[in-house]
Structure formats: structure tokens, C-alpha cells
Amino acid sequence: MKKSRIRGFTLIELVVVIVILGVLAVTAAPRFLNYQRDAHIARADAAFGAFANSVQLYQAKWLTQGEPETPVSYGSGTIYPSTPGYPMSVGSAPVDPTVGPIRGSDCVAMWNALMQVDLTIRPLTSTVLPSDTDIVSWYTSSNQCTYYYTTGYSDGEEMPLLLYSPLTGIIEKTTGRNNA
């Protein structure tokens, strides 16, 4: 009768395997941690792209309705156009659709009226970060709305930004720090 011999791992083999797994963990961990930042960037890109598409669709609808000075039926809320037909204010007519200015509440109201996403937004009060919302909105004296994507970012880090000018329809996706 043959005797079967069952062998296990030697201590040296076990140590070698643990060392190899440790090296793999050290080299792979930063790559996996970076996926979270990539996911936030992708979410910001998707939201900002949806906003840009909504602005373009609003302007297209404005053109097909004969360039009215009254609100165009698009999105939710009463969205008034600027002179070239881009969304400029919500709820009340713009101060002057030719030159502005944008009122402080207009940027947040436009985001909410044009977008149907699960991102939360608030106006800038004193600082962008820390923020308990996904988007922080700010308007500038140059008649431009700035939307900061804040989720997953700390103070001092570059974060995704969307710049929107209702007087020209120019939308720019970029990155930056809290400039307000």
C-alpha cells in the first residue's frame, strides 16, 4: 500500500507570498485610490455637459419660437432670455437683457430650472469650501455664472469649474481654485 504524503507550504514560501502581496498592494493602492477622483471628475463633466446642452436647447427653442422677449417654455420655472436668446434669469425678467447684470440668485435658479440632476447647489456665501453641496454657484460683475464642483475636493485643490455667460452663450469647462 502506498502512503500518500500531504505537504503544506513551508515558512519561507509563506513569507515570500506575503512579501509579494505586500509589494502589489503598495503599488496598486494609489491607482485604486485615484479612481475616486476620476469618478468625481467624470460626474462633474457629465453635469457640466448637461448644463451646456440645456443652454443650447433653450436657445434653439428660443430661435424656433421667433426670438421672443418673453420666457421660453423649457425646463422648469419661468426662464427669461438674454438678447441673443440664452437663459439669463428665472422668475422675473432680466434687469437689462442686453447688458445685464445677472442677479445673485439667477445662477442657482438657472441651474435648477435647466437641470434635472441629483446634484445639490447653493450660492456662494463666504467660501466655496468646505461645502455640504455638490455645486457652489457664484456670479461675477462680468455677467458670468461660475459653478464650482466641490464634492471630493479640499480647500486649496484644483476643482472642476463651469463658466457661463448668458449675454454671449459662451460656456467654458475648466479647473481652478476658489476665486470668489
Automatic annotation (TrEMBL):
Alphabetically sorted, this entry's keywords are: Membrane, Transmembrane, Transmembrane helix
Q: Name one Pfam family in it.
A: N_methyl
**TM region positions:** 12-33
Which NCBIfam families does its entry note? Answer: IV_pilin_GFxxxE
PANTHER family listed in its UniProt record: GENERAL SECRETION PATHWAY PROTEIN G, MSHA MAJOR PILIN SUBUNIT MSHA
Protein's UniProt name = Prepilin-type N-terminal cleavage/methylation domain-containing protein
Q: Which organism is it from?
A: Vibrio tubiashii
Q: What is the lineage of its organism?
A: Bacteria, Pseudomonadati, Pseudomonadota, Gammaproteobacteria, Vibrionales
